[in-house]
Amino acid sequence: MPSSLPHPLTDLPVRRLTRDDLVPCADLSEDRGWPRDEERWALLLAAGTGYGIDDPDTKGLVASCVVVSYGPELAAIGMLLVAGRHARRGVGRYLMQRVIEAAGDTPLSLYATSAGRPLYEGLGFIPVGRTVRLIGPFRPTAETGSTASGGAKPSGGAGTVVRPASAGDLRAMVQLDSVVFGLDRTHLLTRLPVFADHLRVAEENGELIGYAALSRSSDNHAVGPLIARDTATAKLLVTSLAEATDRPLRVDIDARHDELIDWVGACGLRHHSGTTEMVLGGRQHGDRAQRFGPLSLATG
Question: Which residue numbers in the chain have pLDDT < 50?
Answer without folding.
Answer: 1-2, 147-154
